[in-house]
Amino acid sequence: MMENYTVTGHIGEGAHGLVLRGRHLPSGRDVALKKVKVRKLEDGIPISILRESKILKTVDCRYIVKLLDFFPQGLGFVLVFELMPSGLWEMLHDVENPITLAQGKSYMRMLLMGLNYLHKNHIMHRDLKPANLLISFEGELKIADLGQARLIWSDSKNESRPYTHQVATRWYRAPELLYGAKFYTQSVDLWAVGCILAEIIMKSPIFPGETDIEQLAMVISSLGTPTEESWPGLTSLPDYNKITFPESRRIPWETLVPDCPPDALSLIQGFLLYDADKRITAQEALSHSYFFTPPLACPLSDMPKPKDGHRNKFRDREVKADVLFEELFKQLSDFVP
User: Among the options 94, 127, 302, 308, which is catalytic?
Assistant: First the structure.
């Protein structure tokens, strides 16, 4: 219950409410409190919160964030998580402490071990991205935000049932989802992992589209125009005939991900395939030469240890940028009659 906790700060805002910093009074442990508001009583608890809490109660993996408590409060609910001072997004953008190739390899190994655990337990995450990969005080990466996660199941005829295609953040959304696919597998997570690996190498997204159509156009112009041969079932996807793109030839991978070691480039290619059935699995990826080629993944003792409040460094930067923009806009408006 909430009387066992006290709020000590603000972490951020999610899709369904605030994420606050708190302390568990009986133990003195610092925690993250995800406060979820129910807008209308008749609407009940948001389905994403039910899924997240149910799945997190069943998983037990050091590379997946732990749900410590869950209880009603007022017209909402509170999910209590272990406190994580930073995320992969912040670590990649900390120019004062750049991530080395060995450290990036360690992050990938932890991500794949967590994802392999989820997939082996028939769970697909459906929203993997750097912002949903949290980093502990010890430097350990943990998969978080399972609000869009779903169990992978088949009916009695061993046929997949439909899922919504409105999942995953756009930059990490698999092309089958962009074409409106309702029948898909955990391979959508594997596409996202390929995008994340490229981002770890480049320190910027590989496919940063501003709309769904631009996102699909960016993928096609980079990987080349897909065909039924390279992507079986392409022409039967729901949105395939709704838009056409100019014929494109594949851009060399060395151009798409510049200054990328060959073994890392090979692994990225294994994830970023049109044919979802051919994407390398998380388990297979852990045995890829990428992890056995120098520099080797460094031990946890050599990983960056984010200090308490590491996220605030980037929040302050965003606030300053907003203030500078407002001041610039004011100055420019003085010249407009």
Answer: 127
